Amino acid sequence: MAATLQGKRIAFLAADGVEEVEYVQPREAVEQAGATVELVSLKPGAIRSFNHLDQSETYDVDVAAADADAGRYDGLVLPGGVANPDFLRADPEAVGFVKAFFDAGKPVGVICHGPWTLVEADVVRGRRLTSWPSLRTDLVNAGADWVDEEVVTDNGLVSSRRPDDLPAFCAKIVEEFAEGRH
How far apart are CA 55 and CA 61, in angstroms? Predict the structure, then answer.
C-alpha cells in the first residue's frame, strides 16, 4: 500500500534560481500522495526557476519566510539549483525556518545544492547525507558524513545528489513525511 499524506501540509522553501525539475517533481509526488503544499520564499510574489542555467517558469509564492511558521507544517523540501540555496542561506528568516524543522524532529527532504542551507542552519553535524558532489567539502567541514548515493535517509532527513535521483528521492520523501516526526 502506498504512503498517504492526507491531512499533511508540506512546505517547499525556494528562491529565484531553483532547479525547476527539483521543485516540480517532488511537489507533484507529495500532492499526488494527498498533501497540501505551500511555497515559502524570501518575499511575496513569484520566484523564477531554472532548467540548469536557462531561465524557465515562474511560481507564485504562498508565504514569505519571515511570515512562515514551521509549526504549521508536517515536513519541508529544499530543492536545489545553484543560486536558490545561496540566496536562502543568506537570509536569517529562511535559515531559522529550516532550523525549526530539525528542532521539532520533522522530516526534511533536500536535493542537489539544497544542503548549503542546512550548513548555514548548523543542522548537519553528525548526520549522514549526500548532495551535488561540489558540496562535499562544505558538508564535511560542517560535520556531516557525506556519501555518494542515490538517496540517503538519516533520522527523517532525506537527501539526494541530482535530478537523475528524483524517482528515489520522491518516493522516500513521501515515505518519511507519512511517518512523521522522528
Answer: 17
Instruction: Please tell me the distance from the alpha carbon of residue 85 to that of residue 159, in angstroms, as a whole number.
Output: 14
Q: List all residues 6 or more positions away from 168 whose beta carbon is below 8 Å from its beta carbon.
A: 150, 151, 160
Of 52, 112, 170, 182, which residue is the catalytic one? 112
Q: Does the annotation count 113 as an active-site position?
A: yes
Paired strand residues for 37: 10
* HEC string for 19-62: EHHHHHHHHHHHHHCCCEEEEEECCCCEEEEEECCEEEEEEECC
Q: How far is CA 54 from CA 17, 19, 20, 65, in A?
A: 9, 10, 10, 26
pLDDT tens digits, 23-40? 999 999 999 999 999 999
pLDDT digits (tens, 9 = 90+) for 62-116: 999 999 999 999 999 999 999 999 999 999 999 999 999 999 999 999 999 999 9
DSSP state of 69: -
The catalytic residue among 52, 113, 170, 182 is 113
Active-site annotation holds for 170: no
Cell of 114: 539544497
List the chain domain ranges. 9-179
pTM above 0.85, yes or no: yes
Q: CATH assignment of 9-179?
A: 3.40.50.880
